Amino acid sequence: MRHLLILVSLTGCGMSGAMKQASIVGQCAADDAACSRRHPIAPLAIGSRFHPDVSAEISGSATPNLVLHSADPSVLAVEDGALVAKQPGASAVLISTEDGAVVDFQHMWVAPITKITLARRDGDRIGGSIGLAVGEDVTLVPTLWNRAQRLTGDSDAQWTVSTDGTVSVLRDGSSDRRRLRARAPGVTRVTVALGGIATSVDVEVVP
Amino acid sequence: MIRVALIVLALAAGCNPTLSAQSLAPPGRAARLDTIDSFWGIKGYRLALSKGVAIAVTCSHGGPCAKLRVTSDDPAIAEVHDASLGVLQPSHGGVYAPDNQATAAAFVVVGKAPGTTKVRVRTDDGGRTIDVTIVPPPEVAPQAVVAR
User: Fold this and answer.
1) Annotated domain spans of chain B
2) How many Cα atoms occupy the beta-carbon half-sphere of B67 within 13 Å?
3) Which of residues 153-192 of A touch B (CB under 8 A)?
4) Fewest beta carbons within 10 Å, which of A36, A105, A106, B28?
5) Which of B129, B127, B111 is nearest to B119 (CA)?
6) Which residues on A lie below 8 Å from B89 (Cβ)?
7) Are A3 and B90 in contact (CB < 8 Å)?
């Protein structure tokens, strides 16, 4: 048994699954600071989707085609390869081969959102108002929290602007972040809301 | 007499495979495999598992169990899956191959719903029964919602 434990610890270097053979991390671009800080996986925010990047390290074998199953789909469901957070709790996510052999599993947590903050794409947190010149833009990423715990998962938050024409809120292909483009001088308030929780930031546009 | 009793005890204990947990319980949840002992050795196993939690278990009998077959009496309470644990264990190669090794024989049990059931482990070297209790997850305390 002692030999087995030593072997398990050696073969599992860097793998975060319970059996030390595979890991689940978020799909992030290499230069996306806001995304890369999601590692290791934080609890998933209720209502959010997490797009996992599964990798395995099995001695003598390349990674087989792996599929995910949730132990408790009422807490965390697997839909079209994404993990969808349903209600607070924990659920094991089984990483299996197509013929059903479990290669590894990882327990994941789901928590409600109690606070939303905004950050720039480089990770800098927005603490006050934003000033832009006409024609400038800034990309904002909402960060979801449960008290002091940062949450993960892509959310489909609602973005609204208090006055029309001052700034435009543009999608850039991501489900959560938005690019604010300054259109005309003035002051406006941008509000981001999700699941009954909201946060706002004042944007001043100068000529 | 004592020597005979010890030999009988050792033989009795060696008739069936032994099981070992190979994964940790997540924080605040149960995933614990214990033996049920008798005078003659291990009588069976007891597994306490939280709903939504999984545990990996290996089976050995002087080496990885051969032809491992695991079934649950009630998959709606406890689900079992074959597992592929890529590690080598010393195998019972006999006097001609004392250094032989084989891939570990493993399975995973998943807690699906609170209740009790039995998981039956069958191998070429005998079998074991696990008395499984799936416990509900602890209730989450309500928390204040803060909006800016």
Assistant:
1) 2-135
2) 6
3) none
4) B28
5) B129
6) 3-4
7) yes
Give B2-135's CATH code, choosing from 3.40.50.10610, 2.60.40.1080, 2.130.10.10, 3.10.580.10: 2.60.40.1080
> What ipTM was assigned to the predicted interfaces of this complex?
0.85
* Best to test chain B binding among A1, A2, A4, A11 (most B CBs inside 10 Å): A4
Question: Which residues on B lie below 8 Å from A96 (Cβ)?
Answer: 81
The rounded distance, in Å, linking the Cα atoms of A194 and B127 is 53
Asked if B147 lies within 8 A of A115 by C-beta distance, the reply is yes
Tens of each residue's pLDDT in chain A, 207 residues:
444 444 444 343 456 899 999 888 887 766 666 664 455 589 999 999 998 989 888 888 888 999 999 999 999 999 999 999 999 999 999 999 999 999 999 999 999 999 999 999 888 899 889 999 999 999 999 999 999 999 998 888 999 999 889 999 999 888 888 999 999 999 999 999 998 899 999 999 999
Locus of tokens 């599993």: A105
Nearest to A76 by CA among A65, A85, A68: A85
Structural domains of chain A, ranges and CATH numbers in brackets: 2-111 (2.60.40.1380), 115-206 (2.60.40.1080)
